[in-house]
Amino acid sequence: MPPNPAAAGAGGGTHSPSATSGGTTGTFGSTRPTGVPAPGGGAVPPPAASSGAAPKPSPMAAAQAKVAAFASGTGAAAFKKITRAAVARGLSARLADPNGIDQAGSSLCGPSVFIRRIAATDPVAYVTFIIDLYQSGKGHIGDLKVEAGDDLLDYDPGTHIEPVDWIAIASVRDSGNWFFDYQDVNNEVAGITMPSALESWFRKVGYRDIVNQTNVFLTKDEDCLRKASELYGKDYWVCLFINGQMLDPEDKDHHGSHSGSTTPDHWVALTSPVDISPDKKVVKFTVYSWGQGHRPVPYTASDKLSVKDICGNFYGFVAVRH
Prior knowledge:
Number of domains: 1
Order of helices and strands: EHHHHEEHHHHEHEEEEEEEHE
Largest sheet: 8 strands, antiparallel
């Protein structure tokens, strides 16, 4: 989870009834939320003419209305170095395209794949969370309660990272640290997200079907990679635990290579199935990472990656459905 391109992470591996349950539908990484269908499918029927009640706005419309009200409001901010106008502009942009959520130069890839999922599937919860954090320094999504530390509230992200992303992802990471205090974009160690922490965040916001197959010290094999792709096809949000060398083989900051790495340091999310050629010499897929919803792996067509290359930088996944 270091800066773009870099990252951080570490974790274990579980899949049990307590880490398992049912599902959000749609194609991850490409769909933008528009509304909620009626049970069993189809549009929610309008109210009877005699009731006089206005149709209930879609979740997206409700979220946009909250942003408009916030933008025209006044009052003190808990995040002292960030303007209300900057947050409102950012919220509108992220509602239009959640893939734009970007850790930028920070090591906050774990919170990014988490918040990206919330923004895409529950825009009202996403907007409410950030507005509450901005105004009071405290916010919650479901049972996940977040409180930003004083150093974080006093920090000016400047041009290092979009303010709206900083408020959400840095607060989640800062609030979850019992030892390290995350307070600026250069805090590499404090920004590291363990798989157990990512799993816990998803569980607290209501996900019950969770598959955690990760390892901090050892890379995973082709079967695990195929399992990740299989779960993606079943409408799971699949977060891959990798060494960033997989995304950028020329970047030496990741201490890896096509042939393998020694540690995981980045989280991405699958946004396509994993395509493996019959001879296993060519692997292709796309991921959400660094504000890109469909970043290709490998990044350039001329850079061929085999199953061995991919698995040498692959430390498993955390996959979730409701």
